[in-house]
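User: Design a sequence. Structure:
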């Protein structure tokens, strides 16, 4: 029986509240009017009682007959004199005549407490009366007036209150329905936006920008506005998460394709030389040498791929104190031996700079950067390794600068992506697989650091920042 829609619930609540208020006002109004009219009637009873007592006293003269309750009594007035076992009572009719009271009426009136507050009693044959009793010189005087006028007024008032209250409740229900529907219109717009998004194919593909709740409905001072802002924020986060998932899927596909391509080439070479050794046993030493070279290259590639997978999975590093000055010196010494045709330079601070890091991985990063500088610059190029402490950011900054031809502008945005190489033909004259810079970035970020590059002809600089 409970309404299901919010509009019906709010409307029902308004109608119920209106009905409750109407009933409460009607009850209080009726009680106030009844009390006011009763006080007025009590004043009239007191005046009638005073006149009845005046008849009994006769202003100090002899007592007149007590059969009409005295002059100037209002129509419907009951007067009862009781002295000992003798009772004389009458009621003034509408035409001013006096009619005696019945015995049951006398008995009921005789039971009214003397000198107490006015009481309402049901007089047989006459109806309800407000009566008052007092004793004067041994005679009990009882007077009363009918409450019929009060009852009629109160009953009429209740009827009008019920009529107007019903009209008010019906009107309130209609107005509430219209107002509530209008006020909930923004909420229905929010629900429509949610349904539009729910109907999108979220399982696959790139979603892009989804529907949004209009800005006109995003006033956070209102409850609906708060819901709209929360929904728009949720949709923004959802779009970001879905787009990131799509990009990740695309990267995984590309990664698998590139890895397959990189592994297929040495496998093809190994397969070819294996067939050559079977056809021509005299070429076996040559074939085995080539197989060994390709197997070594493939093993190195697999090791790089495994390392990237471990870094992506958040595997812990072997952290310890590392002297970056010693690491830079060793790396440059190794590079000078491998490529004596380049000019190698060091720019180190007078004091060692120590960080907490995985020394083997950091050595791999610096070696990869120096190898890139050696492979992609001609002989005679100057490669400078610098190291300094950034006290403001509490970091150590390692730079590798060369004055070679630089990185092509179209390649710079993707230089840290996996399998990105300058030689688009994928020949291996340079010996690279396109994972060196990707590994350098992953290892650096695993240490909480950052790596960046700036390059133009004659000035290429890789900057590696590690927290101290």
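Assistant: Done.
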């Amino acid at each position: 029986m409970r309404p299901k829609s919010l509009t019906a619930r709010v409307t029902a609540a308004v109608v119920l509240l209106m009905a409750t208020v109407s009933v409460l006002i009607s009850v209080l109004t009726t009680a106030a009017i009844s009390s006011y009219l009763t006080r007025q009637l009590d004043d009239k009873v007191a005046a009638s009682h005073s006149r009845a007592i005046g008849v009994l006293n006769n202003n100090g003269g002899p007592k007149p007959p007590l059969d009409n309750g005295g002059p100037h009594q209002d129509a419907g007035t009951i007067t009862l004199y009781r002295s000992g076992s003798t009772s004389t009572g009458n009621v003034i009719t509408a035409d001013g005549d006096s009619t005696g009271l019945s015995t049951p009426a006398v008995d009921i009136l005789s039971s009214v407490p003397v000198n107490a507050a006015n009481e309402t009693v049901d007089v047989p044959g006459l109806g309800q009366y407000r009566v008052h009793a007092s004793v004067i010189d041994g005679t009990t005087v009882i007077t009363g007036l009918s409450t019929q006028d009060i009852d009629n007024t109160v009953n009429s008032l209740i009827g009008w209150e019920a009529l107007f209250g019903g009209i008010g409740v019906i009107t309130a229900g209609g107005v509430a329905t219209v107002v509530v529907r209008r006020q909930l219109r923004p909420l229905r717009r929010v629900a429509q936006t949610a349904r539009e998004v729910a109907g999108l194919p979220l399982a696959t593909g790139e979603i892009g920008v989804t529907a949004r709740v209009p800005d006109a409905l995003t006033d956070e001072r209102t409850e609906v506005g708060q819901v709209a802002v929360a929904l728009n924020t949720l949709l923004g986060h959802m779009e970001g998460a879905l787009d990131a998932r799509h990009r990740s899927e695309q990267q995984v596909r590309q990664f698998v394709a590139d890895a397959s391509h990189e592994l297929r080439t040495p496998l093809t070479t190994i397969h070819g030389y294996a067939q050559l050794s079977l056809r021509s046993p005299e070429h076996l030493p040559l074939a085995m040498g080539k197989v060994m070279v390709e197997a070594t290259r493939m093993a190195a590639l697999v090791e790089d791929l495994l390392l990237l997978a471990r870094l992506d999975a958040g595997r812990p590093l072997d952290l310890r104190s590392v002297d970056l000055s010693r690491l830079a010196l060793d790396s440059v010494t190794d590079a000078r031996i491998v490529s004596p045709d380049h000019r190698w330079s060091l720019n180190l601070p007078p004091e060692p700079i120590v960080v907490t890091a995985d020394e083997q991985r950091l050595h791999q990063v610096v070696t990869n950067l120096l190898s890139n500088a050696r492979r992609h610059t001609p002989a005679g190029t100057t490669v400078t390794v610098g190291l300094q402490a950034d006290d403001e950011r509490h970091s150590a900054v390692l730079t590798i600068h060369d004055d070679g031809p630089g990185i092509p502008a179209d390649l710079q945005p993707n230089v840290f992506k996996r399998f990105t190489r300058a030689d688009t033909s994928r020949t291996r004259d340079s010996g690279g697989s396109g994972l060196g810079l990707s590994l350098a970035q992953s290892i650096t970020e695993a240490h909480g650091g950052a790596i960046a590059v700036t390059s133009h002809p004659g000035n290429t600089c890789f900057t590696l920042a590690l927290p101290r």
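The chain has three domains: 7-153, 200-315, 318-467. The radius of gyration is 54 Å.
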